[in-house]
Design brief:
The chain is α/β, with parallel strands linked by helices and 227 residues long. It has a single domain, classed as P-loop containing nucleotide triphosphate hydrolases (Rossmann fold). The chain has 8 helices and 5 strands, in the order E-H-E-H-H-E-H-H-E-H-H-E-H. A 5-stranded parallel β-sheet has the order 2-3-1-4-5, with helices on both faces. The longest helix has 25 residues. It is globular and about 45 Å long. The chain starts with a strand and ends with a helix.
């Protein structure tokens, strides 16, 4: 039996997954809990670089670049396999960190695969089929550790668009495709309800973002219930 609890931080585009993962890490450590964070894809590893450069078009030093005109349009099962391979390669590290710590926070995990890939399918039955397929491959076949809690940060796309409008940053294949982000948002909301994830709204009025500190406090309140 593993020692630690596994927390997956998921969310729509621009919801602050990395920020909230880091805040939760700092809070748990300040409370005396041994805690680590892993972020996926792991762009500092070979499997992560394959996802980041060959699929998403990031410059990660492979010298190849993207192999796809638009990876957001690639076949859902085909695309999900790249991400799944990176998580499978990380399985020994995940298991080790769980056994060495009270908490392991994952900034994106299997559930990200479901959100982004299910968003490519319009038919509800096909989305459900893909959802179950990803769940089986990653958790049953690959035997990845299952999260004790999934925190779903929901930032409406129209707000995240406004937040990114003033930022000068290079977008990857998914981030640059607004239609993909819109469909992924709908898929995430559907998945959150199906799996009963812990939903944290990042906007109170649908027009403006909540303060980062307020969101963090709600996230921590939910995680503290696991103790």
């Amino acid at each position: 039996m593993r020692k630690g609890k596994l927390i997956a931080i998921e969310g729509t585009d621009g919801s602050g997954k990395q920020t909230q993962s880091e805040r939760l890490l700092n809070k748990l450590q300040s409370e005396g809990y041994s805690t680590e964070v892993l972020s996926f894809p792991r762009y500092d590893t070979l499997t992560g670089k394959v996802v980041g450069e060959l699929c998403l078009g990031k410059n990660l030093g492979l010298g190849v670049g993207s192999l796809f005109d638009n990876f957001a349009e690639a076949d859902a099962k085909f695309a999900s396999s790249f991400y799944g391979l990176d998580r499978l390669a990380a399985k020994p590290d995940i298991e080790r960190l769980l056994n060495e710590n009270d908490y392991l926070i994952l900034d994106r995990y299997v559930e990200s695969n479901m959100g982004h890939q299910c968003g490519k399918l319009e038919d509800p039955q096909e989305r459900a089929g893909l959802r179950d397929w990803i769940n089986k491959v990653e958790y049953e076949d690959n035997k990845l550790p299952k999260p004790d809690a999934v925190i779903f940060l929901y930032m409406p796309l129209k707000i995240s668009k406004k937040l990114k409008a003033g930022m000068n940053e290079l977008l990857d294949a998914h981030e640059a495709d607004e239609n993909h982000l819109k469909n992924a948002e709908a898929a995430y909301l559907e998945l959150a309800e199906h799996f009963d994830w812990i939903r944290v709204n990042c906007s109170d009025d649908g027009k403006n973002p909540r303060a980062i500190t307020d969101i963090h406090q709600e996230v921590y309140k939910n995680i503290s219930k696991l103790n």
